[in-house]
Amino acid sequence: MASSRVETQITWSAANSVTVSSATVVWSDAFLFNIEDWEAELQVNADNAGTPASGDTCTVYVAYTTGDILGDSGNDYTSVKQSEFAMFLDTYSTNGEDPANKSAPLRTGVLGLKVGVSCPQAASRNIVCRARVVTHRAQ
C-alpha cells in the first residue's frame, strides 16, 4: 500500500505560533485527523523570547475529541485537567536548551485534538511555542 507523509502546522487563533505570557494553559485551534491517517507524531518547539533562566519550562498537553458527546452540535474535547500530558521542555541551558524541540506520538483513533501549552514563568519571560503534526496517510 502506498502512503504519504503529511505535515500540518498547529495554529493558535490562525497564527503559526503563540507567545505564552501567563502560567495558564493556552489551547490551539482544533486539528482534525484525515480518516486515512494511521500514525501521527506531535512536534513542539519552545523558544524563550529573552535569555532563559532556571524554571523556564513548557509543559505540553493534548486534548482529544471523538466528536459530539454532549449532543450540542460541536466537537467536545477532553477537559483541561483531564487532558493528556505529551511532553516537558526545559529551555534553560543547564537543564535543557533554548530553543527546546521534542516529538511525541499521538493517538489516531480519535477525530481530532487541541494542543495546550503552559509555561509557569511566562509572566516574566515569555516563551514562543510552535507545533506541527506529522501523519502517515494512505494514498
Average of pLDDT: 92
What is the H/E string?
A: EEEEEEEEEE
Work out the radius of gyration.
16 Å
Largest sheet geometry: 5 strands, antiparallel
Low-pLDDT regions: none
Total DSSP E strands = 10
Structural commentary:
With 139 residues, this protein is an all-beta fold. The chain contains no helices and 10 strands. The protein has strands spanning 3-9, 18-20, 26-27, 31-32, 37-48, 57-65, 84-90, 100-106, 112-118, 127-138. Strands 1, 2, 5, 8 and 10 form a 5-stranded antiparallel β-sheet that branches. Strands 3, 4, 6, 7 and 9 form a 5-stranded antiparallel β-sheet that branches. It is globular.
Per-chain topology:
Blueprint: E1 3-9, E2 18-20, E3 26-27, E4 31-32, E5 37-48, E6 57-65, E7 84-90, E8 100-106, E9 112-118, E10 127-138
In short:
By secondary structure, the protein is an all-beta fold.
Task: Provide the descriptors you would attach to this structure in a database record.
single chain; 139 residues; mainly beta; 5-stranded antiparallel β-sheet; 10 strands; 0% helix; globular
